[in-house]
Design brief:
The chain is an alpha+beta fold. Helix content is 36%, strand content 22%. The longest helix has 18 residues.
Length: 460
């Protein structure tokens, strides 16, 4: 196959999808006919401690890897070695993903054609019992004794691939793997320059569809901006056709994580009021606990139902949540259940102990004394909500992102150096990009907190 260059790749990695995989050993061997030439072999410093199972299998230690180059330092060499080559490996899609994962954090997009020797073996050697590398090597008499020795593995895959090449005399199977089925074409209206779609990154962020005058008509978020934007052009619904035919250009912002993409989308929709964003422009109902003096001068607490307003107080997305908070305040500060609306004047009450009520409802307590406790309850309501930060991936390996919540109110997000130690709120406030606390941002943060409690960092 004189017109094709192959690069057989083997590596040792740790980590699990969807988290980034870290490469600690990498070897590349160029294949030209019956000849194989090793062009790259190196340990790689993962810039973090390696798991114990990696030490057991490979004999590598943190001390050895600490003296090795980082992936950033060898990335240019790797790209040069793989240039104009077809990537070959046993389970090559996993190896390709590992390289993508490392390059992604360097801000590079990595994608190249691949051939999997495992899948190719299934086509050319159809009667094997299984297609794991040790078994194939044993049956085909290919030297391979230590499955955790990267050098032996690379030599074994190279030999296996060379034998498969000889079996595929007319390159029929090789070409089948290289030339995938025609991908679904992206319909891009004449009003939209194709370059805007083609050059979008496959990374988390927000995207903006703009009309011929540069006005933003739609804002969206995505884990993969390019794939999500293309999906708009695949869709033939009336709404999507209107969106696509009105679009002249497409802009985007990288956020590094889906959480920040959701928050940034909500921020942009409120700020830009795009014509074709409907859902987040609805007047949603929220619930607030508010004080109100009656004719006797007694401060009563009640749940107020109103469309969302930007206020630095705790909001409740469900009435039941507001009731539970009122129950807590009533018990903690010895408030009267009638004055907090938990019982009616007819005496019907919720299943809760109100024995601590001191009689404001019967005139046995001075309003000023009772009101002082209500004021304490309101201070507690605004102060008790936790201060916390959520740390997520940044837009590159050289940074990480954070979301700041103070007293239960979303403050905004920002980016910082991964090595920066965070001990207090003040450490983050200088890096914060302030944003509005809205119904949607509150819902986004609450849902994330419920799903990922291990990622919440409480602050003083």
């Amino acid at each position: 196959m004189p017109d094709k260059n192959f690069a057989v790749i083997s590596m040792t990695v740790f980590g699990k999808k969807p988290n980034p995989l870290r490469i600690v050993q990498l070897e590349i061997q160029k294949v030209n006919g019956d000849h194989g030439t090793k062009t790259f072999s190196s340990y790689i410093n993962p810039e973090q401690r390696i798991p114990f199972y990696i030490e057991q299998r490979t004999g590598l230690t943190d001390e050895i890897l600490l003296k090795s180059p980082t992936f950033r330092e060898v990335s240019e060499t790797i790209l040069l070695e793989l240039e104009d080559c077809i990537l070959v490996g046993h389970n090559v899609s996993f190896l390709h993903f590992a390289l993508q994962s490392e390059f992604k954090y360097l801000g590079h997009l990595f994608k190249m054609p691949q051939i999997c020797t495992q899948r190719l073996s299934k086509k050319l050697l159809p009667h094997m019992v299984n297609y794991e590398l040790p078994y194939l090597c044993n049956v085909l008499n290919i030297p391979f004794f230590d499955r955790f020795d990267i050098h032996e593995e690379n030599d074994a895959v190279t030999t296996l691939f060379q034998r498969l090449l000889r079996l595929d005399e007319d390159d029929n199977y090789i070409d089948t793997f290289l030339f995938q089925k025609n991908k679904k074409e992206v319909f891009v209206p004449k009003s939209t320059a194709y370059k805007y779609v083609e050059h979008l990154p496959p990374l988390p962020g927000v995207y903006k569809f703009q009309d011929i005058h540069g006005e933003v008509i739609y804002v969206g978020k995505a884990k993969n901006i390019k794939k999500r934007v293309q999906s708009h052009f695949y869709n033939s619904s009336e709404k999507e056709l209107q969106l696509c035919t009105s679009t002249h250009s497409i802009d985007f912002e990288l956020t590094g994580s889906e959480l920040l993409a959701l928050l940034r989308e909500a921020d942009l929709i409120q700020k830009l009021d795009p014509e074709l964003n409907y859902i987040q422009k609805k007047a949603y109902i929220t619930y607030h606990i508010v004080p109100q003096k009656d004719k006797k001068g007694v401060l009563r607490l009640r749940i107020e139902r109103r469309p969302y307003q930007h206020t630095p107080t705790e909001i409740f997305l469900k009435r039941g949540d507001a009731i539970n908070r009122l129950i807590e305040l009533t018990e903690k500060f010895n408030l009267c259940p009638t004055a907090t609306g938990l019982t009616s004047k007819l005496g019907k009450c919720l299943p809760i102990s109100y024995s601590a009520c001191k009689g404001i409802c019967k005139g046995l307590e001075e309003p000023s004394v009772y009101n002082a406790r209500v004021s304490q309850a309101l201070d507690f309501l605004n102060r008790e909500n936790e201060n916390y930060a959520i740390f997520e991936k940044g837009r590159a390996r050289s940074e990480r992102s954070f979301v700041l919540v103070l007293h239960g109110v979303y403050q905004g997000f920002g980016f910082l150096d991964p090595s920066m130690a965070i001990a207090s709120i003040q450490d983050l406030e200088g890096l914060l990009m302030p944003k509005r606390h809205t119904y949607h941002t509150a819902k986004i943060v609450m849902a994330y907190r419920k799903k990922n409690p291990h990622k919440i960092t409480y602050l003083n």
